[in-house]
Amino acid sequence: METTGLVSFGRYTCSHLYFLLLIVLPLGQHTVEGVWPLPQIFTSSIERYPLNPQAFYFGYGRQSAAQFGCSVLDAAFIRYYSLIFPDYTGNGVLHNNLSVSAGKASLNAETVWGAVRGLETFSQLVYQDDFGSYFVNQTEIDDFPRFPFRGILLDTSRHFIPVHAILKTLDAMAYSKFNVFHWHIVDDPSFPYQSQTFPDLSRKGAFHPMTHIYTQSDVRRVISHARLRGIRVLPEFDSPGHTKSWGKGQSDLLTPCYSGSTPSGAFGPVNPALPSTYQFMATLLKEVSSVFPDSYIHLGGDEVNFSCWKSNPDVRAFMQKMGFGVDFTKLEAFYMENIVNITTFLNKTAIVWQDVFDYHELRSSPSVVEVWKDGCYLCEVRRVANVGLRVILASPWYLDQPGPTHNWARFYTPLNFSGTAEQKKLVIGGEVCMWGEYVDATNLTPRLWPRASAAAERLWSDEKQTSSVDKAFPRLQDFRCKLVRRGIRAEPLYVGHCKHEYQGV
Amino acid sequence: METTGLVSFGRYTCSHLYFLLLIVLPLGQHTVEGVWPLPQIFTSSIERYPLNPQAFYFGYGRQSAAQFGCSVLDAAFIRYYSLIFPDYTGNGVLHNNLSVSAGKASLNAETVWGAVRGLETFSQLVYQDDFGSYFVNQTEIDDFPRFPFRGILLDTSRHFIPVHAILKTLDAMAYSKFNVFHWHIVDDPSFPYQSQTFPDLSRKGAFHPMTHIYTQSDVRRVISHARLRGIRVLPEFDSPGHTKSWGKGQSDLLTPCYSGSTPSGAFGPVNPALPSTYQFMATLLKEVSSVFPDSYIHLGGDEVNFSCWKSNPDVRAFMQKMGFGVDFTKLEAFYMENIVNITTFLNKTAIVWQDVFDYHELRSSPSVVEVWKDGCYLCEVRRVANVGLRVILASPWYLDQPGPTHNWARFYTPLNFSGTAEQKKLVIGGEVCMWGEYVDATNLTPRLWPRASAAAERLWSDEKQTSSVDKAFPRLQDFRCKLVRRGIRAEPLYVGHCKHEYQGV
């Protein structure tokens, strides 16, 4: 069972409680292979059952609230049929009126998303013998995620990532039970989001106005692909810093920097002293809120450099007028509060980077703080939880960073978060960050997988059962081969081989 | 011009001196884009000429010794036509009887391989404007490689690399003017080479006897694909260490290790005390010599652990008999000398890793020593050159090693090799090593490219003209986009974009 709550999909929810049936026949013996991430409660025997692709079908239980017509599960049945029987070229799943009364397996879940996760688990239990026959061992699993928020951030501004590569990443995310795609869609280098209300933003701010943009149709495709896999799409429109590309298509948005008493020609962060800034942000965020249905929106707020604000006489005058003195963190707080208020008004829950929490007290606080800085990040988690705010942890999972890329165990470190039950409840999850300085579609997949899967197990599974790197290693090797078999270019962990090596080029 | 000598292809050579013609018409202006690796002498003007795919053709000059029927150039014409006109779907190159008497470009080379390099250079000079039209600027180039040996090592034992991934690597190698594929084909973990004389070696020593092997046909395909691109295939059968997988299919080859007075069940390096060892090696190397036509053969000889030899009473008795005392380097030298003599008899030039040179004086010395260890590798180069042996340098180009993978400039460091002209001449080149602990077909390409291209420029170009990382950076970025356009999954160097992003998944 996967609890909903924070990870519910709002308007997408189908309905609750159902069974899935499938045809199995008991037979010989085989060691069961692992499931990644490790289920909470898992027992299996060496008794195995053959699966016949031609007789196998998924079906809704009679008592299930979900029935044929639930688009998410109907699609998942088709998808997982192919994943379970990679060699079978027929489409047995569509002929589900067979009356073979043999073995059955059942999957009970409280939500449609829990059922999707259960299908993933089941698909990982099925294996082939040397003759290509399919088997599943007798298994009992009771499962739920440790954290409701299990995200991966992709940065599509420092390099443009074509839609097909994003979709492929969503596929792989579902295999590791990630449920949030944090789309850091724009930043300094480029603005690839094609806005309906401000088309000049991508026309002038993208790397190329036609080939390096995400159209509305692209965005819908990503959201729909993600939704069918139980993945939320969390858009980030980071401001007031990280906005250089915005200035190209929206004049008077960025702060003109001054060199002495004259503008230098350079621009700094968003100009917080102009009313037009807030009108623009309100209009843009209104569009974003309607295009991205998720209840969360990420507002960024990281790494604001004050030097340009300091140089600008209009900004300084505004500071005086507002009584901020020379404390530019107050100006930043003023800006962020206004932006958070806009999203509150739009009925969205705001997420911000930890900088916003670190540097100033906000009167109207954002709901969720994302901790990303190095050092004692668990101290920071505690500080945020102490004031009753929710926390997402990203610090240990910067997979884009230099370092021995093959040391997957770095990303498997237990969290050991001590705190009251109340505080722990505020830690809603974690996120793998794949910043884009050195990453695009050429190397994204092997850099993400299977290392992100190590983080996925940390976010899903019981920490006590998954504290040993040595025990995890063969399981992760096995899971990595499953990813490769499914066409995911997941890199090897160490010397060895997969039964089915990657066949692409 | 590319000198032949050490890089000649022996029986493959076509013939010497020819021209290539192509249709060009002078027109407007455009900044010429770069060629990677940088040619020795390069002048170009802003005068540009349009290229019409329908009128363009390659042809042999009337005075050329090579004419239609030279398989290497006939194939290169077809290949480079597609590379030069990636958007054009016709096959104009085959209709080369057009009588358009317009501009011509000529390419003179002393060897067929030099002409292949020249075609690569020419293909990099052609660019498209925003409307898709093709242009080339007026350019004069006189070019030759700094070193005759410019290699890339792939390790197909620690992970099996499917043939299609090897072929793709050969394509990319040709784009950077590499000319040696060092095939480290077998090692401890697996023996994927399917031997005609000893089929049990792969049947029992490969990861899988059917799916994880290189058949004779696979090997021929690799050699043929490489040859057409001016790349030699240098096979390595590393012994006496790194041979664990050999023992599975060839009993009595490896040394039984002893625990006290009884065999422990473990095996060590090849057993140098048995005559059967040398019979086996002679038979295997005879086969290898005939399967791989290159004049070089790599015999390995690195990292021999003496502990197993020391434990074995028969080996110790052999030491006594031979008068080696307790100096096991003498035993190793004895073994390597025998193996080198076998290859000399087979008319091949032996290459060994530096260990063989470091640890003992050989009476019959191998011809070429490959320097691979860290530290003052140029000191080692000098030591080897001082005794008149040829040297290949690999130390600075271990691209598989952990570290900031994106720091391409690490592999661009000038060599600054000081020595007499005689000594310098003995340094025949260098090699990029891609060991296989953490590498297979899923991540090979982005890990190799474009970082190996940095090494390629060091090995091809004039060091004085290519000592600046800052000047090289935009050129390498441009070249990396050319690789991506050609379907090579070369990873990005830093923030930015290519006009044509990678379209695969």
TrEMBL record, chains A, B:
<keyword id="KW-0326">Glycosidase</keyword>
<comment type="similarity">
    <text>Belongs to the glycosyl hydrolase 20 family.</text>
</comment>
<comment type="subunit">
    <text>There are 3 beta-hexosaminidase isozymes: isozyme A (hexosaminidase A) is a heterodimer composed of one subunit alpha and one subunit beta (chain A and B); isozyme B (hexosaminidase B) is a homodimer of two beta subunits (two chains A and B); isozyme S (hexosaminidase S) is a homodimer of two alpha subunits. The composition of the dimer (isozyme A versus isozyme S) has a significant effect on the substrate specificity of the alpha subunit active site.</text>
</comment>
<dbReference type="Pfam" id="PF00728">
    <property type="entry name" value="Glyco_hydro_20"/>
</dbReference>
<dbReference type="InterPro" id="IPR025705">
    <property type="entry name" value="Beta_hexosaminidase_sua/sub"/>
</dbReference>
<keyword id="KW-0458">Lysosome</keyword>
<keyword id="KW-0865">Zymogen</keyword>
<keyword id="KW-0378">Hydrolase</keyword>
<dbReference type="GO" id="GO:0005975">
    <property type="term" value="P:carbohydrate metabolic process"/>
</dbReference>
<dbReference type="GO" id="GO:0005764">
    <property type="term" value="C:lysosome"/>
</dbReference>
<dbReference type="GO" id="GO:0004563">
    <property type="term" value="F:beta-N-acetylhexosaminidase activity"/>
</dbReference>
<protein>
    <recommendedName>
        <fullName>Beta-hexosaminidase</fullName>
        <ecNumber>3.2.1.52</ecNumber>
    </recommendedName>
</protein>
<dbReference type="InterPro" id="IPR029018">
    <property type="entry name" value="Hex-like_dom2"/>
</dbReference>
<dbReference type="InterPro" id="IPR015883">
    <property type="entry name" value="Glyco_hydro_20_cat"/>
</dbReference>
<dbReference type="GO" id="GO:0030203">
    <property type="term" value="P:glycosaminoglycan metabolic process"/>
</dbReference>
<feature type="signal peptide">
    <location>
        <begin position="1"/>
        <end position="34"/>
    </location>
</feature>
<keyword id="KW-1015">Disulfide bond</keyword>
<dbReference type="Pfam" id="PF14845">
    <property type="entry name" value="Glycohydro_20b2"/>
</dbReference>
<comment type="function">
    <text>Hydrolyzes the non-reducing end N-acetyl-D-hexosamine and/or sulfated N-acetyl-D-hexosamine of glycoconjugates, such as the oligosaccharide moieties from proteins and neutral glycolipids, or from certain mucopolysaccharides. The isozyme S is as active as the isozyme A on the anionic bis-sulfated glycans, the chondroitin-6-sulfate trisaccharide (C6S-3), and the dermatan sulfate pentasaccharide, and the sulfated glycosphingolipid SM2. The isozyme B does not hydrolyze each of these substrates, however hydrolyzes efficiently neutral oligosaccharide.</text>
</comment>
<dbReference type="InterPro" id="IPR017853">
    <property type="entry name" value="GH"/>
</dbReference>
<feature type="domain" description="Beta-hexosaminidase eukaryotic type N-terminal">
    <location>
        <begin position="98"/>
        <end position="125"/>
    </location>
</feature>
<dbReference type="GO" id="GO:0006689">
    <property type="term" value="P:ganglioside catabolic process"/>
</dbReference>
<feature type="active site" description="Proton donor">
    <location>
        <position position="303"/>
    </location>
</feature>
<keyword id="KW-0443">Lipid metabolism</keyword>
<dbReference type="InterPro" id="IPR029019">
    <property type="entry name" value="HEX_eukaryotic_N"/>
</dbReference>
<dbReference type="GO" id="GO:0016020">
    <property type="term" value="C:membrane"/>
</dbReference>
<keyword id="KW-0732">Signal</keyword>
<keyword id="KW-0325">Glycoprotein</keyword>
<feature type="domain" description="Glycoside hydrolase family 20 catalytic">
    <location>
        <begin position="147"/>
        <end position="462"/>
    </location>
</feature>
